[in-house]
Amino acid sequence: MTNIEQLVDEIVKRIQPEITTNTVLVEGSGRHVHLDRATIDALFGEGYQLTKAKDLSQPGQYACKERITIASGKNSFQNVVILGPERQASQVEISATDATTLGLRVPVRESGDIAGTPGIVLINGERSVILKTGLIVAKRHIHMTEEDARRFKVTKGEIVQVKIDGYRPLIFDDVVIRVSDKFATTMHIDYDEANACGLKPGSRGEVLKKSGL
């Protein structure tokens, strides 16, 4: 082994524990919508198939080429991305700042937990749909594989803290663990939270078990 190879090997050994043992990739998520078949039909025409534009970090999830407008009685946001594939129920995810702009009181919920949530109007050109429920601020969460859950010694639904070091370091509390082998291990926060911690591409967070604090 050459001196250069030895140096590279030593550097890898030094950083590998930090990357693999107790940290997860952290991604910021902007406002977006998930649509069910009935809503797609109403907005784009019966049988319309959304067009994949870009794969996302979670397996099987993707951003679509199509964009729509979301509107309240007070304000609206245009060019909102649709995420595929289609869902069983339509859902719109925004930040707390977005909710203020729309003039709505929007609860923090896990994805899929939309009972009792406010509605929103979806618009595509001359077509529109009024959702009676489905508007949420997404609860900060970590998608985690079963293998990683065992390695981190956490369980589905457990609440942890995540420490993010950067030029605006902070510790996020009330982070829910979501476990499935259909996931890739990644933490998702919205843009309000991303701006609060100065999130950059490739940022990682240290998972802290609350029972150990």
Helix content: 10-25%
Radius of gyration: 20 Å
Q: Give the CA-based shape.
A: globular
| Count of helical regions | 5
Q: List low-pLDDT spans.
A: 15-19
Distance between the termini: 43 Å
Catalytic activity: propanoyl-CoA + phosphate = propanoyl phosphate + CoA
Enzyme class: transferase
Keywords: Acyltransferase, Metal-binding, Transferase, Zinc
GO biological process, one term: 1,2-propanediol catabolic process
Outline:
With 213 residues, this protein is of the alpha/beta class. The chain is built from five helices and 15 strands.
Descriptive notes:
There is one protein chain. With 213 residues, this protein is α/β, with parallel strands linked by helices. The chain folds into two domains: 23-27 and 140-212, Beta Barrel (Barwin-like endoglucanases), CATH 2.40.40; 30-138, no CATH class. It has five helices and 15 strands. The protein has helices at residues 3-20, 37-44, 96-102, 146-152, 191-196; strands spanning 23-29, 32-36, 52-55, 62-71, 76-87, 91-94, 108-109, 120-124, 127-131, 135-138, 141-144, 159-164, 170-179, 186-190, 204-209. Strands 2, 3, 4, 5, 6, 7, 8, 9 and 10 form a nine-stranded mixed beta sheet that branches. Strand 3 (52-55) and strand 4 form a beta hairpin. The radius of gyration is 20 Å and the shape is globular. The chain starts with a helix and ends with a strand. Residues 15-19 have low confidence and may be disordered.
